[in-house]
Specification:
- Strand 1 and strand 2 form a beta hairpin.
- The protein has an 8-stranded mixed sheet with strand order 1-2-3-5-7-8-10-12, with no helix packed on it. Strands 4-6 form a two-stranded parallel sheet. Strands 9-11 form a two-stranded parallel sheet.
- By secondary structure, the protein is an alpha/beta fold.
- The chain has 4 helices and 12 strands; from the N terminus they run H-H-E-E-H-E-E-E-E-H-E-E-E-E-E-E.
- Keywords: Signal.
Length: 213
């Protein structure tokens, strides 16, 4: 009889041990699905020291804004490519900055935005089209003003399926070719050096157009 009780107790202990390991395994699998970011549980902004001098602001439930006003080009690249981010952010902006000279291909890594604002980035002379096209399914507003940009690839506008507002102002851009955008509502283009203007746009939803002087 004692042998039977010992056997039952041994089996019970074995099942308890197996149950513990099964529970632990399931827990680990569950935790692996949580989007941990640099040691912070499901928090979309990385630690500030990892992205400085850029900064990130999070306002629940879904507003995530990145400010790189005090960064140069290489620091922006480092902030987005050397750090884990949530892929879908809200705003990226640089205001009144003399250090950013270009936004090259891959500058944002795999991050996309709803709004990109580059205002007063006075030495900016190049924005690679892929920088904008990475957000082609999400980008709603794009503003590039007061810079040294002398060329913009207008045909990418037709690929930006959510773009409602586009502003390009106070730049050295000289041409405005035909382009298509079925969703664009606002076009803000004052202060450029546009000397060539081609008719034949397909922009049926334009409600606001400012060519300026």
């Amino acid at each position: 009889m004692n042998l039977v009780f010992s056997l039952v107790e041994s089996i019970s202990d074995t099942w308890k041990t197996m149950g513990f390991w099964i529970f632990l395994l399931l827990t680990c699998n569950f935790l692996s699905l949580i989007p941990w970011t640099c040691g912070q549980e499901a928090y979309p902004c990385p630690p500030s020291e990892d992205i400085s001098p850029c900064s990130c602001e999070y306002d629940a439930p879904s507003f995530i804004s990145v400010d790189c006003t005090f960064a140069n080009t290489s620091q922006i690249i480092s902030a987005f490519n050397g750090v884990a981010w949530f892929p879908n952010l809200t705003n990226f902006y640089v205001w009144y900055n003399d250090w950013v000279t270009e936004l090259p291909e891959g500058v944002f890594g795999t991050v996309t935005f709803e709004r990109i604002q580059l205002n007063g980035v006075r030495n900016l002379n190049s924005v690679h089209p892929s920088v904008i096209l990475e957000s082609k399914d999400r980008l709603q507003q794009l503003l590039i003003c007061d810079c040294l940009l002398d060329h913009f690839q207008w045909d990418i506008l037709s690929q930006l399926t959510e773009l409602k507002f586009f502003g390009l102002c106070d730049s050295d851009v000289t041409d405005l070719p035909v382009f298509d955008s079925l969703i664009l509502e606002g076009l803000y283009l004052p202060g450029n050096r546009i000397s060539t203007f081609e008719a034949g746009w397909s922009t049926p939803n334009i409600k606001y157009l400012d060519m300026g002087a």
